[in-house]
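Researcher: Structure for this, please.
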Amino acid sequence: MDAFALYRLPRDGHCTLVGQNGVPSRLTSLEQLGGGCGFVIAPFTASDDMPALLLAPDDVRQFDCNNVAVIDDYLPFYMDSGHLALNTVDREVYHEDFCRFQRAFSATDIQKLVLARCADIGHNGTHPTALFARACELYPDAFVTLFSTPQCGTWLMATPEVLLGHGGGRWHTMALAGTMRYSDEALSWSEKNIQEQAYVARYIKDCLDLYSNDVEMTAPYTTRAGILAHLRTDFSFTMTDQARLGALLNALHPTPAVCGFPKLESHRFILENETVDRSYYSGFSGPLHLGDDTAMFVSLRCMRILDDRYRLYAGGGILPQSEENLEWAETEAKMQAMLSLIEE
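Model: Predicted structure, token format:
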């Protein structure tokens, strides 16, 4: 095989390997996914250098998550870093970005922005499949995936956020926003976190209403993701025209949880003003019509695996009342999901 994706759905005891002979197809539009089948890898913003990809299921196998080392010799890894400069967004650079984002609220109609950062960490030599197995162990409720293609390189993630999935005869998505460290004691959410999550829920509900007349949503509730807690609203709906799946994905991505609100204005501002190159961070990935699986997840809690280092990504929602030190601490906590794998 020339490219692959290895994934474990939340709370599953097995993982699935999808291998392709040849180079994955570049998507000119997410709407093409309406009739597709395979494993989807989409960036935050598609470009010639970072295309949206559909990996064909030429070879599909299942393994026990604790026994993935048996396929090490068959997997191609693309981990070149010769042309990638060190890309750590340090505290001073983050301060400059944060101030720039804050000024946008008084100068534009933008109500929320998501500010991302990254950090390069020295490579510890652990095989990528061993990191995958460790992520499956540490994060049983996350979608864990390791994929590698010539176009996007090699990435590992353990993400809690569903973009779009199917099960029980209905489609599902969620609004996941607002972050604090998890505690067994009752958590009290700040007005900033409540408002941030409400923006995401409102946007998703408006999108779904264009594709279904049967949308059900829950009230916001607290959910755990590793050492963190988030506010979450669940949505379920029916969609009789499956050919519109790609159009719905195009409408949802990127949600205000990783971009901002309003969508178009915040997306444009991020591309013009954010220091970090997000690449495939805050995009989405997952199986599309593979057996019984269609499950797209937002690419969070992730890192790119390079030949001499790991590149970790994290971000957080910024509102006019956001406090810089708290936002920085939130990104540090989110990076811990990947750091816990490589510091083991």
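Researcher: Any notable elements?
Model: The chain has six helices and 19 strands. The helical segments are 91-107, 128-138, 191-209, 245-252, 263-273, 324-342.
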